[in-house]
Amino acid sequence: MDAHELFSEVPEIQDKPFVKWVWRTIESLLMPRCDALLTVCQSVADYYSNLYSVKMAVVRNVPDNVTARIESDASVGTPDNSSSLIPASSLKTLLYQGRVNLGRGVDWAIDALEWLPECRLVVAGDGDLLEEMKAYVADKPWRDRVMFLGRMMPDELVRLTPQADVGLVMLEDMGLNYHYALPNRIGDFVQAGVPIVVSNLPEMAAVVRKFKVGEVIEMNKEKSEVRNCYARALARTVKMVLAKGREGYDFSEARKDMDWNKEKNKLLECVNA
After folding, report:
1. What DSSP letter does each residue of 225-255 carry, written as one string?
2. pLDDT value of position 220
3. Which residues contact 36 (CB under 8 A, 6 or more apart)?
4. What pTM was estimated for this model as a whole?
């Protein structure tokens, strides 16, 4: 059984107690009876181990380093304008890739552009709130600096990701699923050599701090309006990354660690056990 996420704790069902009970019941019935259990990070493994007294293997959802052509392609980590999926611009590119869903911070990124006149935001992905975010940005004075690319194929994302100056991986602390999340796009940005800005949540922040591949959003203790506070904190953090530039971050160790060629062996061990 693959617990890709802590589904009974996703934000969308936290105000639906019956739905949450159904999923929790399914977990409690099936998980102790499985021959093998795996999940995407140690925090989720520990949570399920404590809740159901089960042993879970950790297999992180990360790309292989061939994706970024680390050893063979000297252009890795620099935008390839000849195959660009976004128009050339003097603006710095902030990239969000993934589902445009509740609590993913796309609204923070839109609002943060008020304090980042040198930046544009590119959103690559589909989701429940995509149309709502398009409507939200339509009234902003900086609406021309936001691009929605919609759902993209994996090979398109491989081409797109290195063209960013900053990768955005923000989650609101809305339930344990987000609190313990280790989104696969962190690995995508690492392999592409793009500095990352992440929320200050355990798994994400640990990767960024350990390997020094980006910055963690630190909130001011004095909070006014929440959305405004998040957006300002994100803008401050993006400015830190841009001031350092790509050359201010070393991705070599993170690329070696966050490599599917390592993780797949754990999966094979789990299946063959």
Report:
1. SHHHHHHHHHHHHHHHHHHH-GGG---HHHH
2. 57
3. 1, 57, 270, 271, 273
4. 0.87
